[in-house]
Amino acid sequence: MSAEHTVLDPRTMRDVLGNFCTGVTVVTGHDGREPLGFACQSFASVSLDPPLVSFCPARTSRTWPKIREIGTLAINVLAHHQRDTCMAFAVSGGDKFTGVDWTRGDNGAPAIAGALARIEATVEAEHDAGDHTIVVARVTGLTALHDDGPLLFYRGGFGRYAGETLLDPRTATDVNPVR
């Protein structure tokens, strides 16, 4: 049995997949000389046992190979007011930490001030995936920092969670909205 592959226009794929709203993270590391980081919206929880997460840096990233070499990293979940922080880390080259308030986390990776949460991890595995790499990382530390709303990426733009009523998946009843 052979599979046929349809050639899809990248712009159409971006437009269609842009209908899936994602949170925004900044993946960071520290090589002992300088902080490193890049913006990443392709982040997900993979497994609770063992605790694994994944994210997908572009194969063209110059920062990811440096963080990979370190082996330890932090995934900073950005709050809705951190659009400028996201944009600083979305560019290639330069000092992305200029004007960004941060400290070193428990594993040494930069912890960005104002982030909603921080996931500290070690690189577990990598898989080639077209123009990106799928990274699986083992969680070594978790910190929930704020109750503020997340920075969201949708259809090529940024927004925030509006506080709609959520359903509790255990009971299918309304729960307090996230603010």
User: How confident is the prediction overall: mean pLDDT?
Assistant: 88
Measured by DSSP, the beta-strand proportion falls in 35-45%
- SSE arrangement, N to C: HEEEEEHEHEEEEEEEE
Uncertain spans:
173-179
Question: What kind of oligomer do you see?
Answer: single chain
Strand adjacency order, main sheet: 3-2-6-9-10-5-4
Count of helical regions:
3
Q: Look up the CATH topology.
A: Pnp Oxidase, Chain A
Give the helix proportion (percent range): 10-25%
Structural overview:
Keywords: Monooxygenase, Oxidoreductase. Its EC number is 1.14.13.-. This is Flavin reductase family protein. Residues 17-160 form the Flavin reductase like domain. Belongs to the non-flavoprotein flavin reductase family. With 179 residues, the protein is mainly beta. The protein has a single domain, classed as Pnp Oxidase, Chain A, CATH 2.30.110.10. Helices cover 12% and strands 42% of the residues. The protein has helices at 10-17, 64-70, 83-89, and strands at residues 22-23, 25-30, 35-40, 43-47, 52-55, 72-77, 102-104, 110-112, 117-129, 132-144, 151-154, 157-160, 166-168, 173-175. A 7-stranded antiparallel beta sheet has the order 3-2-6-9-10-5-4. A hairpin with a 5-residue loop joins strand 7 and strand 8 (110-112). The longest helix has 8 residues, at 10-17. The chain starts with 9 loop residues before the first helix and ends with a strand. The model is unreliable at 173-179 (pLDDT under 50).
